[in-house]
Structure of Chromosomal replication initiator protein DnaA:
Amino acid sequence: MSVLVPLGGDLPEESRALAEALRRLFDGLGISVRRYAARRHRDPGSLSRFLNGTRIPPWEFVHDLIRDVAEEQGRAPTPEAIELMRRLHRTALAYGGSALNRVQALEDELADADRQSLRSAALVRALEGALADTQQRATDLELQIRQLHGHQDRTAAEKNKALQLYEDQVTALLRERQDLMEQVEALGEELKDAHARRVRAERRCEELERQLVAAEEQVPQEDTVAEGPRAEPPAADGTRAVRPGPDGPRAGAPAADVPREAPSGERAPARHGLDPRFVFETFVVGDTNRFAHGAARAVAEAPATLYNPLFVYGTSAIGKTHLLCAIGHHAHRTRPGTRVRYVTAETLAHEYLGAGRGRGLDAFRRRYLDLDLLLVDDIQLLTGQGGAHEEFRRLFDELQGARKQIVVSSDRPPKQLAHLGDRLRGRLESGLITHVQPPERAVRVTLLRRKAEQEGIDVPPETLDHIASHVQRNVRELEGALVRVRAFASLNRQPMDVQLAAIVLRDLVPDRGPSREEDAARRIIEMTGGYFGVTAEALCGKERSRALVTARQMAMYLCRELTDLSTSRIGQLFGGRDHDSVDYADRKLRALMAERRSIYNQMTELTARIKAVDGPPTDRWV
Ligand SMILES: Nc1ncnc2c1ncn2[C@@H]1O[C@H](COP(=O)(O)OP(=O)(O)OP(=O)(O)O)[C@@H](O)[C@H]1O
């Protein structure tokens, strides 16, 4: 809208003020009137008149100019600047213009006021709404707070009730626990007693079983040939006992007390738990055992001076027990009065557990601390039950401190005896460690020749050589092979030549890794049980019916012959029996096979069946 301003005459003050403000604003654009008029499509004349105050421009022009100047200066027009110009423009219209201008100005102002009033009314409405909302929310929250307070009170009351209940229960349980702990203590004592009684009863059973079998064998039987002098049964304490003569132990024994060679399958009375057959004189020396033999001799000749302890290790049946016993015999023979004891680690642990506490334990300790020479076989089988490792370590320290000799054997080097604990293992490593390896061929031939001589049989050298070349790892297996060849030859009335040996030995000794030996033994037990119609559990159990005893002995014999396991380990697999039981079964079966065709046939058939199967035993054994 264009506004007319009166021409000529004095300009009203208000118009001049507006024109002055417009000119200052326009200067901020930094361009000429003409150029600005061209850019905004305006008439330059009118534009000049606005600026010199001769016409009052419409508000839109003023507003545009404010915006253009702000843009030119790189900013937005400030509300204060707009308001200032608005006031100047209104004043100019009101006082500097015509009546029409004034009407127009008042209308503008009214419109502004109206807009303002509308805005204020809208604001009032919005605020009223917001107030109502806020009040409503406050009311809601108040309600929620009251509900939560109620809930909180109820929960606290319930919690207090539950806490009280728990406290009552805890008090009752604590009381019950105390009672139970007292009962546990009492039962523990009873259990210890019962355990000791069980160990004693087990030993008694073993002993009676041997006596029973020995007694049975005295009774003449149709199919049985007398067995000759019997082996001395082990004493209840697990060592092999001295059978006293009428005047005390071994009256009339040779002056030097040299154990005589016992014929195969029999055992002369033993002394100090030492097997009388195992002396240095009967030990065949070769490259694989020379060092161990030399160390054993040195220890036997001067106990507790050179190597203490002496630790001998190697696989099964390569002469470790033989060397231990030989040391004992030699020491005893050359220094009469030397107190020697040979014991398996298993027996040692049993004795310790059976000793209990108090006097029993004192007696146990005295029995060992009185010794001059302690020979412990199969240390790998020393159980840690009831602190047996610690006890043995203590005995070890005291004996060593008192300059008493200790000799220990094992199927593995001390480093691999982690289960004995670091302290005991350290003691075992502290002396001389010797490794015995399976004998070389020449030694094996010598051993076979000697065995044949003892048995009084004539075996051609080439047959001995054939056997020696086929059975390499285990002397027990080697001797077993000779027994088999002999039995087969005698039953078939054939000469013991190489052909016959080849037939008997075919597949006799399987090539099996050591880790599978126990699996193999378990399979043997299962299959022998199956063959005789009894379970493996019964075979390893305590029942002693005649049929079961024979089947059990056959299984033991086969385990010994067909695996590399030590006799002690085999005994363990048979329900925790000791190695004497296995030795006894072995001797008995050898004799029976040579005498009774039925037994030989059964053993041959069973062996063939066992060899035909190659796989792990069933889960029952796992
Ligand atoms: N070098 C040897 N000279 C004479 N006999 C030997 C020799 N090596 C082993 N033997 C004989 O072999 C049989 C088994 O030996 P021994 O009982 O000493 O074995 P071991 O190594 O202790 O085995 P295990 O750990 O299974 O008991 C014994 O009859 C023993 O006399």
